[in-house]
Amino acid sequence: MATFHPFPRLTLELRIQIWGFATEDRVLRVRKTWNHNQGYWSPTAVPAVTRACSESREHCSYRKAFIINSSPRYIWANFDCDVIQMRSRLLADKNILERDEVRHLRIELVNEQGLDESEFFYHNHVHKLPDFPKLESFNLLVSDGLWPQWTDFIKETYWGACPRRNVRIVDRRTGEWIDEETSGAYHDYRDSNGGKNDNYTRVVDDEEEEEGRMEAMKRLQIPLPRIDLDY
């Protein structure tokens, strides 16, 4: 991008507005050290606007967040647009920092050693999600593929402030995802070998849904839509 050399000659009020508009669509990965020097950190690159000059840092829409009193560490964050991605273990923290501000959350079901934590999340961590009062969207990155046990999970779980329609189960290897609308049809698709038989294992209580199973599979987008995991 070409440099706009007259920028310093703009009025301060206009420059402040421009700094505030300078945001990035990004996934902000949040990590925490668990030793005696506890603190949050991120492998995600800091926003460019925070490195431009002291004026940009003062007036941009990003702020220093995830600060523990005893730690000098902080993470630049904009909770209006950043997708906060963390491992499920952080949900077990009694005082999850910034939980009152997070709007877009993505949870990885894998620990620091690369081991799957699906069982811990299912039994111990998922009930922490209603603690996020501003949550607008939630993605769950699963390690074992989009198996049938995940298709009923969206409907069976209480998501607090987050609308159920904005919850997605994502295969962390491929980025393919299912949501409330497509999860049942995808379960049937897997059961019926792509609609070639009617050996359904998913139980439905609604007679109208039972009759519309085949049509729902026909509307299903195969291959499934994907999120970008290149970050």
TrEMBL record:
Pfam families reported in the protein's UniProt record: 2EXR (PF20150)
Positions of the 2EXR domain: 4-84
InterPro entries named in the record: 2EXR
Protein name: 2EXR domain-containing protein
